[in-house]
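Quick illustration, no need to memorize.
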Amino acid sequence: MWQEIREVASKYFYEVVTAIIILFIGFGLGILVKKLLARLLKEVGLNKVMAKVSITQDVEKGISIGVSSLIYVITIIIFLRQLGLQSVVLYLILGAVLMLMILTLMVGLKDVIPNLVGWVALQRKGTIKEGRRVQIREIEGVVEHIGYLETEIKTEQGDILCVPNSLFMKSKYKLNN
């Protein structure tokens, strides 16, 4: 009887130790990939490229965090599978992660999509062009640049104001020659 208990205990001990080693290796790999990917993307200059298309968020950091998070999730799945808890717990974790990713994407794009649609509308109408004088709400000046997400307007005082393109769809604006 003691022999059976010892065999069962050593089997579970082996599985738990293996699972913990998997957890440490996976988290270490996630940290390493995050740092290496951030350095690689910084050398490539991804943020500078994205700034040219009017995306000002830290894309390099976002991608490196996203990839490392994916490694963490895969590590946790393997950890749970090693412990024999993969079914219900796995589905709950995957559902929560998927929901979090969808919510993050929706929050991140809530301003981008209307401004991109505004840019398309400005391009189709063709009434607002660089060098043309425009007045929208309290802002009046000369259009310096029309980007994908915002339009830069230079005021008489020399200030450059960034107006979201969606504002041109929501508000009335006046064109001056």
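DSSP finds six helices and five strands in the chain.
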